[in-house]
Here is the input.
Amino acid sequence: MLQIDHLTTADAKVSLDDVSFLFEAGKIYTILGRTGAGKTELLRALMGLNPLTHGSIKLDEKDITEEPIRARNMSLVYQQFINYPHLSVLDNVAFPLRRQGKDKAQAQALASTMLATVGLGEFLQRRPAQLSGGQQQRVALARAMVKQSRILMLDEPLANLDYKLREQLREEFPRLVADNDESIILYTTTEPREAMELGNTMIVMHNGSIIASGAPAELFANPSTKDTASVISDPPISFIPGFVRNRELYFNEGHQAPSEGLLLPEDGPVTIALRPDAIEPDGAFNAKIGLSEFSGSQTIIHLDFDFGRAIMMVEGIETFAAGDDISVSIQSEHIMLFAPDGRNITLRNNQHG
Amino acid sequence: MNKFYHTLKTIFLLGWSIFVVFPFLWALSTSFKDANAITSGATYIPWVDFEPSTQGWTSLFTTGSQGINIVGPFIDSAVVTLIASLVSLILGTLAAYGLSRFEYRLGFVKNSDITFFFISQRIMPPIVLAIPFFLMLKELGALDTIFGLVLVYIALLLPIAVWVMTDFFSGIPKELDEMAMTDGCSPIGAFFRVVLPNSVPGLVVAGMFCLIFGWNDFFFAFTLTFTETQLLPVSIVSLNSSVTPWWSLSAFALISVAPLACVAVIVERYMSRGTMTGAIR
Amino acid sequence: MAKIVLENLGHSYSANPNGEYDYALKPVNLTWQDGKTYALLGPSGCGKTTMLNIISGLVSPSHGRLLFDGQDVTNIPTSERNIAQVFQFPVIYSTKTVRQNLAFPLECRRVAPARIRQRVAEVASLLDLGYALDMPARKLSADQKQLISLGRGLVREDVSAILLDEPLTVIDPQMKFMLRRKLREINRQTGVTMILVTHDQSEAMSFADEIVVMKDGLLQQSGTPEELFSRPQNDFVGYFIGSPPMNMINLEARQGVLATDALSLTHQAPTESSNLLYQMGIRPEHISLVDDTVANIGVGIIKKIEHLGVDGIVTLELAANVIIKAKTRKHTQMTVGTAMGINVRHNDALLYRDGVLAL
Here is the structure.
């Protein structure tokens, strides 16, 4: 297991701010955050590429904070396809094994097995420059995995690939890393859906620190802070300022908000969060249609209420003209309330889970 | 309109080519002349205007008071240039790697200042250094020696190596070094195993520039050597006297230039830096 | 404003093309109406960027003609085509303020200063960047910088079309959403035709009135998002549009019908026997999952459930080892290993013969 405590860096652009976490063996952690949240910086600090101003890193109880990069038992796959241009694909993957002291024959045998696993058995003698983007990333992945290091880190590895290729590799990814019972896998991404799909455990980062962690479904259902809810949601969640008065919930201009099943806090300002599934056609609220977008077999409608903007998702393909009026209902079971300091203060009468 | 420009271009290029190539052709033709060929005015084409003779060429390889020795100066030039270039290349490449990968700070002095310091040495007029170098070599007892000249040439060629290689290394992504280190190399190991093999074009260009500038130098060779050590550029000039053997001189000049011409051809092929683009999409 | 017509437009980078493979873009015929939004969608190397470059004038096509409002612009240089282009990475003048960036194209064209001020103010308010006009452009976020790039195209009053070459690549997912809305609003308010090049099908689907799907330089299908989604003309479009891709189930000819052991859905078999591959294509969104005791056309065991937020993807194994994926909002109530009943409307199960939609 990997224990990190109070990691702090002082980089020019994005710094880590007192990051602590315990990573357990055999698990895949997806690290989700916006650009500039600190995901790459975290991986680089663990690898030793970025210096720490404060904090410690312990791998299996051993403090490796001061260890040189080559002694850290970690591998890294970059977002930009990094392979050694002067070596063949086979030698690329054999490279770390040779540095470990294995002789050429042994290293090449292990490398070619790994390359077969990632589907590149036919390309052993090619140079990386002769391969497509997806293939180059597979070489990088094979080289990272062949070392069987304790920690395998992937920094947005699919970000530079086409949408469909990304979808395909994402599908394959669990199979590719399946033989890693003892390893800890860290995978960073900016795409919420990718993070939720790939990880046993999801870690949410924002402004250089970890703001949430847990099972993806749990984090989605109950984000602990407003920032977490904002980063996790795709399509985006809508935040509307509101307040509680006399045990009733209101949207900012005084429009009554539905609050069935919600245990409201004391009188005062709150932020009301509406997930796309919170709004359904036909109801008591009037809105103007800002835009309707097609998304697979669903239509996403941007609504402009008197009190703010929100997004509605309906099944099926419906054409809505921008500027039209529409009346909708808002389901309180998909509303969340956040305190002014960002904490999730949603409490329901029939709390489950 | 296009036709006009096209003709203009062709005329200009043709003219310029003739202007550039003519001296060599003239020297070539002159090198096959002897005294008879020039007595009645200038002559140009062998066999048509005059009878060619190999006197110019053979005289270069005969020693003694009648002969002009080219072999000695050629070897001296080669030794000095090669040693100085090699040392400059090695030290310069290492310095360039440091400058491109690490951050140095001494008070207000940063990497860019250090690089500029190197480059500025080539901006300085050489004559400024003539007397200081003379005095230094005199103290060292190294005047008129190969050793002394090599020292001075290293000082002159090192900035070129640093200049070319710093620029080249900045085109090799740092992530490649990092990857090598995560794969088990020490920083020096990363340099030798990964960065250097991918730097061959840069090394060739830097090396060739060092050779060219070293071989061509007249000023310092002239100031710091006299009899024991003679370099080619100085030797040529010393052939000038009241009775100048033009044919030998021409042959001498052509032989001096020949190695550089080969070097230039090689440099041209390596000038493109296409090899690095495959590593990063 | 321009109606854009591609007449037998094709391009080969080699001087003497003698086979399909020599063409980066095989000849196409397309008509694009004025004022709408279009998307050129396809994987890397499909020819979409070549097509965009032909429209903008950076590449002169080796075959065919390009017409703007009936006028042949095939050989007219880029600067005279009234095209604005937004690139993958924001292109802004980093030493200037936002105002100066927006004003630059007009200054180059010697527009009167008063008119420049007015135009810049109009465009800035359209982009919601009015408050940032006097800020240095380099201090803005990536999506704001892309809006500036777009704004530089919009300030010019003679712009007939805006070409966007994968403009949302560097933008975060949540911002992409907002930016797409903004682009659509701008299109509606200004009536300027917008053509977007992308490899991201969700982007194309949400942005465009009409999508052109391409592969290997060849046009696969052109139509509205709905058409491409509900009736993909071939298996590539079925795969490329929609996430997850369309499920393709192999069919066998049995006693006059095409059937599979996996589902009890059949299609009329062809009269003449052939060795062509027949498949049934069903979109994950068109599959409804019910309890296995309720009437259904097939039963599958849940192999994997992926929670993706509001909805989720369920992978099921049907009879005969057929694996399909279904999209549902009820994924939180399902567990791996249980059997579920499948229901699909007959209209949603499309027949493909050798990869092409059979009517």
Notes: Chain C has two domains: 4-240, 247-357. The longest strand of chain C covers residues 23-32. Chains C and B do not touch (no CB pair under 8 Å).
